[in-house]
Amino acid sequence: MLIDIITYTDEQFAALTEEQIREVESVQTKKNRLTEALEADKRAEKFKLVKKGIFRSAVFEKLCAELEEAYSVEVENLREGLLFYLRFTTGANGLSAPYAVNFALTYEERAKIVKEYYDSHYAEPTERFEAFKGDGVAKTYLGEYYSLLFDYFYLQIE
Fold first, then answer.
1. How far apart are CA 38 and CA 85, in angstroms?
2. What pLDDT is attached to residue 9?
3. pLDDT above 90: residue 33
4. What radius of gyration do the chain's Cα atoms show?
5. Are 127 and 89 in contact (CB under 8 A)?
6. At residue 117, what are phi and psi to the nearest 5 degrees?
7. Distance spanning both ends of the chain, measured CA to CA
8. Which of 158, 149, 134, 151 minimizes the C-alpha distance to 11?
9. Comparing C-alpha atoms, which of 145, 92, 81 is closest to residue 114?
10. Contact, 15 vs 89, CB < 8 A?
């Protein structure tokens, strides 16, 4: 199963518990069903318009835009719910971090703290990237923001 409801690295998925993995799979399945329903609804609308002889009008594009907007809202609700679940069911598993770890913070606030720590403690981009890459707590603590910071630090060494 392709997991595209959230953007976690393989290491982050590996750190999840069985219960968390089941929840990710469940939410991904719901998203996949929504995607299938969206395509079926588009086909049904197209068939209705073809049958009425008005398919070439702008009506179909408007209907598709409305369907896609409703789909996007539903998918974002699923995604946010999953991220909320993962945020409050994930712990540092006894690992210590050189920065303050507070799971009550939002992911944006967590990422800012971690980024500021590595930016202020490592002047050399390669050293900064290697230190971040070796940070086991960050993989769990940052959620989807881990890959963003990973890319941020990696691009500084190029």
1. 26
2. 84
3. yes
4. 21
5. no
6. -60, -55
7. 33
8. 134
9. 145
10. no
- Listing DSSP states for the chain in one string gives ----SS---HHHHHHS-HHHHHHHHHHHHHHHHHHHHHHHHHHHHHHHHHHHT-TTSTHHHHHHHHHHHHHHHHHHHHHHHHHHHHHHH---TT---SS---TTS-HHHHHHHHHHHHHHH--SHHHHHHHHHT-HHHHHHSTTHHHHHHHHHHHHH-
pTM (predicted TM-score): 0.69
Residue with tokens 């049958």: 51
pLDDT at 92 over 60: no
* Residue 44: band (very low, low, confident or very high) from pLDDT cuts 50, 70, 90: very high
- pLDDT of 94-145, one tens digit each? 567 888 888 778 889 999 999 999 999 999 999 999 999 999 889 888 988 9
Tracing tokens 């399945």 back to the chain, one arrives at 29
What residue type is 120 in one-letter code? Answer: S
